[in-house]
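B., you asked whether I could sanity-check this one before it goes into the benchmark set. Here's the sequence:
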Amino acid sequence: MILTTERLILRPPDLADAPAIQRLAGAREVALNTLMIPHPYPDGAAEAWINKQRTEDEINFVITLRESGELAGAMGLLVSREHARAEIGYWIGVPYWNRGYATEAGRAVVRFAFEELGLNRVDAEVFSRNPASSRVLQKLGMRHEGTHRAHIVKWGQSIDVESYAVLRAEWNSSL
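And here's what the prediction gave me:
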C-alpha cells in the first residue's frame, strides 16, 4: 500500500531504508518523546523493524519526500479489527521538524484507516511534554480524551501521557 499526498509518499519500509532510519530515529530528540525507540539506537534495530513489517495488525509506512525521495520519518497503525480501531504512532527526523509533514502524513493514514480499513476509531497517545505532537493530533481532528498521570517510565522518569481519538463519524476527510 502506497499513500500519496501533495508533498509526501508513504510506502512500506524497505531494507534500503535502514541507514536513514537508524540515523534519524537514532537522534536523542526523537527517542526522548517516543516509547519504543531506544537511544542509543543499536545496530541492526532498523533492519529488525523493517523485517517485521506489514502484518494484519501492524501497518507501517516510511514517510518520504515526493521531490527528493528522502526519508523523513515513519508512521503506522496498530490495528484491532475486533474492535474496529487502530492506534496511530509516528516519528519525524529532527531535520524535518516544523514543516507539517506529520500532519500531512497523518491525514493520509487516518483516511486510509477509515476509508480502506473500514475502522470506526483512530487513537493516539503522546507524552505530555511533547505539545507539538498534541497539536498534530488536534489538526487530524482528534479530541483530547484525558491525561494518564505517571503512565510511562522512560529513561527512569515517570511521564504523563495525553490520550486523543477521532471517530469515523467525527472525521472530516477535507481536514
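One thing to flag: The chain has five helices and eight strands. Otherwise nothing jumped out at me.
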